[in-house]
Amino acid sequence: xxxxxxxxxxxxxxxxxxxxxxxxxxxxxxxxxxxxxxxxxxxxxxxxxxxxxxxxxxxxxxxxxxxxxxxxxxxxxxxxxxxxxxxxxxxxxxxxxxxxxxxxxxxxxxxxxxxxxxxxxxxxxxxxxxxxxxxxxxxxxxxxxxxxxxxxxxxxxxxxxxxxxxxxxxxxxxxxxxxxxxxxxxxxxxxxxxxxxxxxxxxxxxxxxxxxxxxxxxxxxxxxxxxxxxxxxxxxxxxxxxxxxxxxxxxxxxxxxxxxxxxxxxxxxxxxxxxxxxxxxxxxxxxxxxxxxxxxxxxxxxxxxxxxxxxxxxxxxxxxxxxxxxxxxxxxxxxxxxxxxxxxxxxxxxxxxxxxxxxxxxxxxxxxxxxxxxxxxxxxxxxxxxxxxxxxxxxxxxxxxxxxxxxxxxxxxxxxxxxxxxxxxxxxxxxxxxxxxxxxxxxxxxxxxxxxxxxxxxxxxxxxxxxxxxxxxxxxxxxxxxxxxxxxxxxxxxxxxxxxxxxxxxxxxxxxxxxxxxxxxxxxxxxxxxxxxxxxxxxxxxxxxxxxxxxxxxxxxxxxxxxxxxxxxxxxxxxxxxxxxxxxxxxxxxxxxxxxxxxxxxxxxxxxxxxxxxxxxxxxxxxxxxxxxxxxxxx
Length: 635
What we know:
By secondary structure, this protein is an alpha/beta fold.
């Protein structure tokens, strides 16, 4: 039984769990993914010949792909028995099959942020007299997102706000926004979960059918669920003795702004006859860091009852694994951290083994500037929701046009991207002229225009012809082959339109791998493929030779040999906003969990730093330094 090898006692008990509801409280570095994967592998291996399936839901496609690869190594035939995916991909699949209940066809589009803003602006502009209290489309969308993730019924919207006039206007706008999504056959991230939850609740026959298919439901990173996701789980497994296997850690709830809550574990206990197993063993951090984490998190009272402290499974190296650095001001702090990192690399550490963490990006930018001054490559991760290089903009916009064929805006996007890729003299007016001759079919018009354009290279002309004929997979492969060759040839030329192509090409490969590889990805319908691309994170990985600079939120789930946590001062960590709410509020407890998550990324050394002044204002050291007993008693 290879799937049970190298598991400790608690992990083995969890992996051997058969039926009924189980909660695995898994601390950082406790091997939770290995435990979950081992249990799924065992269920499959011990039920050969049976037809039931297992549903495993997590939060990122990368995590789902990694778990899938681990599982297939343990049980090669697991692919047909397990659906291992994200909440959003699962909900999207359900709406593809049953979204007609709300008026959605299976090829619905998933909107990008700019498209969502445009949709709200169209509502505000059309009914300007009705929505007098809305400042901007962006702020309005923040409210809409809140209503989606909390599954707020229209009639309850006005009760959420003290100002009844604003509440009533928000109710009307929310209803208009949902109706416009239906009319235009499109959804955004929040709407996917909202409509999926509504479907499972209003059409219990569908929920019952899913329960018949999926005998076991597993949830990873449960602490990150919002109300909509939790209700989807409840619809899939409503019985108190349901076969739910839930892995989470209420000490790592740091996404309250996105609907997560440390009280969600308590909701589980209300709805299910839970058996709880704890995984307190920490295999990642030095014992000294584990001691800090335990001393810190015990100050939170929003924790599961009888929560065991983390248990270090590493032997102390004898070296000083923890260092506290203090500086006169924030500028000196950034300079000092850069010099410290430089010395560490000179001592043999690799840049990729080092991470700089901070509560806010502003501090990271200061450190990055000083790292640059001492010739240390560094990278601040900034989330991207869409491709920005001309080649991938051309491919994705052409695919969208192939799906709808007659859309002026999409046609304009295709022509703009094509013009950025190659030197050709055709324009939108030329495309429109061809489109008129072809009864408004913009895709056919694109094919005709490209075929007559001497500025478009033959390989790209051939790729477009293939797309017009309906073979989107071959179009992608031929287009990428051409763009790869151009990028390789012009690597030293500094072509601006190809500046982001190399990193985005790597992202594209990762997305295809996350979908299941080229065979699985390109066998999807075009609409389904575009939905998967829309759901994917487009953020490139850091260059392999650089020090990573991450916010604490971005670091969750990662680990590094050497961790620097900067800005350990009041109003930085904890944040000014949390301090305003009081000493033991839910906001302050989340700040403490932020610090807990940050320090437990450490595999070898942890360096914490603070300055006496930030932006010219004197700030005392963070209360968390005192709670971890790194400093004496606070005043």
